[in-house]
Amino acid sequence: MKMSKKPTENLVLTLLLTAVAAAAGSHRESVIVIGAGISGISTANALYEAGIRDILILEGSSRIGGRMMKAEFGGYTVEMGANWFYTGGPVQNPLASLANKTRLRTSLNDDSNITANVYRQEGGLYPKKLVDEVEMAASSTESFCERLSEKLAAMSKTKGVDIDVSVLEAQRLFGNLPSTPLEMVIDYYHNDYEEAEATTVTSLKHTYPRREFKDHGKLSNFVCDSRGFEELVQGLACRFSNRSSQHKILPNKVVKEIFYSERGVRVKIEDGSTYRAKYVVVSVSIGVLQSNLIRFTPTLPMWKMNAISEFDMSVYTKIFLQFPYKFWPTGPGTEFSLYAHSRRGYYPFWQHLENEYPGSNILFVTITSEESTRVEKLSNEAVQREAMDVLRKMYGDHIPNPEQILVPRWSMDRLYKGSYSNWPNGYTKAKHDQLKARVGSVYFTGEHTNSRYLGYATGAYLAGIEAAKDVIESMKAEEGLRLSRKIIRIS
Question: Which pathway (predicted)?
């Protein structure tokens, strides 16, 4: 029996390897990727490197890059979306490697002196000594949050139940609940500025410790290249899209409906065109999935829809203003300033671009969450009035009005519906596994599917690679099943 079985095993193995290699280039094994952001392009690039030759990318906008989006502002290139990548840690950041290959211009941000630049609501700086005390308390709270998160993770593993609390609940347990304007703006700097949502809703266990910083480091590389951060995505796309006419990236193809079955997928576009493939990888944001811009036929199963609907899509807005001249401090230790207001998150985090673009006379302020969605509904003129009221409190009534203002409106753009995802308290790991799980021939990727670097461009890039691996495994499994049936018939 053993001797008679060995030739059959060798035949199966030979046929399997031969058929998978051949099928990779066939239409039956083709892959459609929806979205040409870093996650979608990363998926396509990984598929190409694995030998998949029939790849089609459908992009709803007229450009490649997704939420890596530059804008020309006052003669300079600014980033409306993703802006930083981190280095200095024990793990090499793949984005740093890509940046080196493309020679992307960056500037290291320095916020070490930020406690000397915190302004009161009605003007004037807080004493640095007082701010340092508040900052020390916030850092101690952060350390407690990390310890508590690790304890909850261990308890969850032992008990088999996902035990979690919000970041705010952890702060309450530690006994350091921010309440004054100064305490709130320092807490905002530690939390909302990273997650783009308030501590009331953010999961502790799936936020602390922040793996992006633990792994890749805290050196903040600010992209200030005229080609934009999206140059990384362009570089990835060039690795496969220019080698053959088979590899297409089609712009202005807003997906309306995805029909899927065991035989494959059919993707319908708003312009009436239709595309078919064996597999589809959906790399749109969680906000777009929640908006029902794309309809699935048949309807996605209830477990999948619940996993999508219960996750959070946050909004992170950078408002740029260019002035006729500088009226703010420049030089070492002045790049960042905080504005403390009784309303948490009201124009709190300011940065000048004199280090990145000397002589540009550009300031930008970061707002998030509810303030972002509120401000997005205002006119540019109304936003300017609010921002200038804050700046005049900080620097005096004599300062000039800006010559230009730029207000991104991420949540109002149907192709994005927000900036990046955030893990809400009460959302379990099991549900997150369902969020990234495939449904038949439909696969899902994006920064929201990467639990380790959730919300970061690094997570989006790595999620694309993981999605490609999943598709390839399915290809191998299906081809193996087909060949085993063929062997049975031969036998």
Answer: Amine and polyamine degradation; spermine degradation
Structure tokens at 169: 């609940």
> Is position 255 annotated in a ligand binding site?
yes
Name the region of 119 (left: φ>0; alpha: ψ -120 to 50; beta: rest). beta
Distances 22 to 89, 120, 349, 433 between C-alpha atoms, Å: 42, 67, 55, 32
Please spell the DSSP secondary structure of 36-62, one letter per residue: -BHHHHHHHHHHHHTT---EEEE-SSS
Report whether CATH 3.90.660.10 matches the domain 70-225+313-412. yes
Query: 20 pLDDT exceeds 70?
Result: no
pTM exceeds 0.85 for this model: yes
Q: Domain residues of the chain, as ranges? A: 2-66+228-310+421-490, 70-225+313-412
Q: SS3 of 94, please?
A: helix
**Torsion angle of C-alpha atoms 444, 447, 450, 454, degrees rounded to 10:** -150
134 is in an annotated binding site: no
Given this model, what pLDDT does residue 478 score?
Answer: 83
d(CA 131, CA 118): 8
User: Hey, what CATH class is 2-66+228-310+421-490 in?
Assistant: alpha beta
Rounded to whole angstroms, the Cα distance separating 21 from 160 reads 42
Q: What is the pLDDT of residues 159-198, one digit of tens each?
A: 888 899 999 999 999 999 999 999 999 999 999 999 999 9
* 390-423 pLDDT per residue, tens: 999 999 999 999 999 999 999 999 999 999 999 9
